[in-house]
Write a structure and sequence with these properties.
The structure is a single chain. The protein is globular, with a radius of gyration of 17 Å. The chain has a 7-stranded parallel sheet with strand order 3-2-5-8-9-1-10, with helices on one face. It has a 3-stranded antiparallel sheet with strand order 4-7-6. Strand 6 and strand 7 form a beta hairpin. It is α/β, with parallel strands linked by helices. The longest helix has 23 residues. It has one domain: Rossmann fold, CATH 3.40.50. The protein contains 6 helices and 10 strands. The protein starts with a strand and ends in a 6-residue tail after the last strand.
Length: 254
C-alpha cells in the first residue's frame, strides 16, 4: 500500500484537516464531472467530522446538491436502528444539510443479507460513473480501521476478502453474530481516492503493522488503489510510526 500520512494533536484538529481535503476533492469532482460520489464510513470515529462539515462555514464551501452519498458498509438492521450507520450519518450530516432523497444511496439493511447486497450492488453498477476499464468509480471513499485491522466490513479471515467479482457483498461477523453488507476490494480499489480516518491509542500498533510492516494478512493493508491512500491520524494513533513518515499539520479553518 502506497500511503501519505497526516497527523494532528487531537480529534478536533484532525477533523478540520480531513474536512478541508474532503471539500476540496468533492468540489473538484463537481467542477470536472458535474457531481461527486462519496462513500462514507460508519461507527463513532467520523461522527464529529460529519458534524463539522454540516456547520457554517464548511457547508458553504461546496454545492451539496451535487454530492451523492454512498456507504462503505452497513449492519443488517433497519435504517432507524441505533446501530445503523445510515442513522448516524442522517443525524450528523444528511438532516442538517437537508439533502434530497435522490442524493442518498443507503444499504437496505432491513432486507435479507443476499437481497441487501444485490440491491446495493445494482445501485453501484447503475449510478456510479465508469472508469475507462468499465469499473464503477467513486470519487472518494472515507474508511476507518478497527483494532483487528478490518476496514469497512472486510474482517480478517473472511471469505469476502477474496471476492473479486462483486462490488458489494454480504458478510457474517461472528464476534457480533451479525450480518453486514460491505463494499469489496474491486470497488474500493477503483476509487479515485481513499481516506483512512483513525484515532486512539488502541489502534497505534495496528497502524504500525499496516504502514511500516506492510502486513498483508490484515484487511486494511490489502487496499491497493492507483493513488496513495491518505491516512489521517490523531497523535495517539500515530504514536508508533517513525517521525520521517509523518507530515504534521495544524488544524485550520476554511
Amino acid at each position: 500500500m502506497s500511503a501519505t500520512i497526516t497527523t494532528a494533536a487531537d480529534s478536533a484538529a484532525l477533523h478540520a484537516l480531513c474536512a478541508d481535503h474532503i471539500v476540496r476533492q468533492l468540489g473538484s469532482a463537481i467542477a470536472t464531472r458535474g457531481a461527486a460520489h462519496w462513500a462514507l464510513a460508519g461507527g463513532a470515529t467520523p461522527r464529529g467530522l460529519y458534524q463539522l462539515l454540516a456547520t457554517v462555514p464548511w457547508r458553504q464551501r461546496i454545492d451539496w446538491s451535487r454530492v451523492h452519498l454512498w456507504f462503505g458498509d452497513e449492519r443488517c438492521v433497519a435504517a432507524d436502528h441505533p446501530e445503523s450507520n445510515y442513522r448516524m450519518v442522517e443525524q450528523a450530516l444528511i438532516t442538517p444539510l437537508d439533502l434530497a432523497p435522490t442524493q442518498l444511496h443507503r444499504i437496505a439493511g432491513e432486507l435479507s443479507p443476499p437481497s441487501a447486497a444485490a440491491h446495493y450492488a445494482a445501485q453501484l453498477q447503475q449510478l456510479l460513473p465508469r472508469r475507462e476499464d468499465g469499473r464503477p468509480q467513486l470519487d472518494l471513499a472515507l474508511l476507518g480501521m478497527g483494532e483487528d485491522g478490518h476496514t469497512a466490513s472486510l474482517f480478517p479471515a473472511s471469505d469476502v476478502l477474496d471476492n473479486q467479482q462483486d462490488v458489494a457483498a454480504a458478510v457474517w461477523q461472528p464476534q457480533q453474530r451479525m450480518w453486514r453488507i460491505t463494499l469489496t476490494y474491486p470497488l474500493l480499489n477503483a476509487a479515485r481516492e481513499l481516506l483512512l480516518l483513525v484515532t486512539g491509542s488502541g489502534k497505534a500498533a495496528m497502524v504500525r503493522r499496516v504502514v511500516v510492516d506492510g502486513d498483508v494478512e490484515l484487511p486494511v493493508a490489502r487496499l491497493n488503489p492507483a493513488a496513495p491512500v491518505r491516512w489521517y491520524l490523531d497523535a495517539a494513533a500515530a504514536a508508533e510510526l517513525p517521525a520521517e513518515l509523518i507530515t504534521t499539520l495544524n488544524g485550520r479553518s476554511p
